[in-house]
Amino acid sequence: MSSTIGCGNKQRLVEYLYREDSGGERADFERHLATCVRCTEELRGLEFVRQELAEWAPPPARVHFRLAPESAARRPLWRQPLWGLAAAATLLLAVGAAVANLDVRVGGGEIVIRTGWAAPTIAAKRPAAVVPLSTAAAREQEWQAALKDLETRLRTDFAKTSSAAAQPPASPGDVNGAALLREVRALISESEKRQDRQLALRLTDMVQDVEAQRRADLVRIEQNMGQLEGLTGAEAARQREMLNYLVRVSQRR
Amino acid sequence: MKQPRRGTRGTPGPGFLMARTDEELVALSIRGDRDSFDQLILRWERPIYALAYRVLGREEEARDVVQETFLRAFRGIGNFRGQAKFSSWIYRIALNLCRDWIRRERRTPVSPTPEGVDVIELAAEQGPVESIEELVARHDMSRVVARAMERLPEEQRTAIILKEYHGMTFQEIADLQGCPLSTVKTRLYQGLSVLRRHLQEQGHHGSAGQGS
């Protein structure tokens, strides 16, 4: 191949540069390079550019996007464990009632609702004349029954929740307890795996951060040292000049 | 295409956590396994970030691109039929987002001053002969390259980035950029030639660049 045949073919040059040519093409181009100074020089120039490009590193990435983990807290309501829901409901009611110092009384044809620690009683009195006595009595009984039922249910749920949270299932035959335990264990295992991954990620980040900081510190130190040397040299030269001047003046006198 | 590594400078990554191939993880993700998609993110977020940063020249926007890329990928993974590699698919999403951002901003990407360099301090201390940029660039070759890259047209810059930092073949770049193979080679040649001239202007010749 003569030195002029391959010179205009920049695509061949790029293929050779990136080693994306076939064996035969590569051998042909190498024969051309052996006789063409211009192509050889251009190839070396481009190789030098590639070396310089290798120096360009992006700053440490602070990107850790993850899909929201499907934790128990984010499951749909209907997939939440029953004991969890019961515990949450009980706790919410208990705290709410305690904070509000809720006091509900039904009797004597009236409903009395009182909240707050020192609040005066707010009574929603319903005149007996408006509601027939028989209806009022029936409603009162209904209210009392409903409240008792609610109280019983809450107490039962709370007792179940407390026992479930405090201790593992009492016997292997306790199917619900065993299932609960399995679920908790699965959640813990999943959480541990996720934490392992996060830990590995954080460690990698930390190594990168330290390395980036080290490099930046080195650059600064180098800059400061260079400037310090320059300043020291300039100051010494100025002192020397001043000394020479004084010597010359004193010699004249 | 290069398989991604954790970290950009050879930092070891948690490869032990990633035994499955992209294709397997994609299949599991389509079936609703979020952990598998998380692994895909973990595997590809840094290459995508590096790509976006080099194309845009801005950290914050690069992070936004990464987030949006994976969000779009997650939403569209049900339609991903494996006609292309997952990496090609996700690179295409990221490049489209970068292109949108450049068009929207209609400005040349800029590169922030490297971390750890106090520009004000340098300005106060440096002499009148050498500018701050020159001072920083003199100590950090990375900055010189970054500034040289900013001068390139977007297509040339992207082609060089995909080739140099992501190890793609000419054909993969052509597929991503939607252009003929010959155009990719031309873009690479022209881009490298411009970079070479710019580096020479900056006084970076290199022994090989002297033709000796």
* Euclidean distance between termini CA atoms of chain B: 34 Å
Strand content of chain B: under 5%
**SSE arrangement of chain B, N to C:** HHHHHHHHHH
Biggest sheet layout of chain A: 3 strands, antiparallel
SSE order of chain A, as H and E?
HHHHEEEHH
Number of helices in the DSSP assignment of chain B: 10
Estimate the global geometry of chain B from the Cα principal axes.
Answer: elongated
The structural class of chain A is mainly alpha
Q: How far apart lie the N and C ends of chain A?
A: 82 Å
Number of helices of chain A: 6
Give the quaternary arrangement of the chains.
Answer: heterodimer
Q: Poorly predicted ranges of chain A (pLDDT <50, ≥5 residues)?
A: 118-133
Share of helix of chain A, binned: 55-70%
**Secondary structure tally: strands of chain B:** 0
Biggest beta-sheet profile of chain B: none
Radius of gyration of chain B: 19 Å
Describe the SSE topology.
The complex is a heterodimer of chains A (253) and B (212).
Chain A: H1 10-17, H2 23-35, H3 37-53, H4 82-100, E1 103-107, E2 110-114, E3 122-125, H5 133-166, H6 175-252
Antiparallel strand pairs in A: 1-2, 2-3
Helix pairs in contact in A: 4-5
Chain B: H1 22-30, H2 34-56, H3 59-76, H4 86-105, H5 119-125, H6 132-139, H7 141-150, H8 154-166, H9 170-177, H10 181-201
Helix pairs in contact in B: 1-2, 2-3, 2-4, 2-8, 3-4, 6-7, 7-10, 8-10, 9-10
Word description of this protein:
The complex is a heterodimer of chains A (253) and B (212). By secondary structure, chain A is mainly alpha-helical. Chain A contains 6 helices and 3 strands, in the order ααααβββαα. Chain A has a 3-stranded antiparallel beta sheet, with helices on one face. In chain A, helix 4 (82-100) packs across helix 5. The model of chain A is unreliable at 118-133 (pLDDT under 50). Chain B has 212 residues and is mostly helical. Chain B contains 10 helices and no strands. Classes of the chains: A mainly alpha (253), B mainly alpha (212).
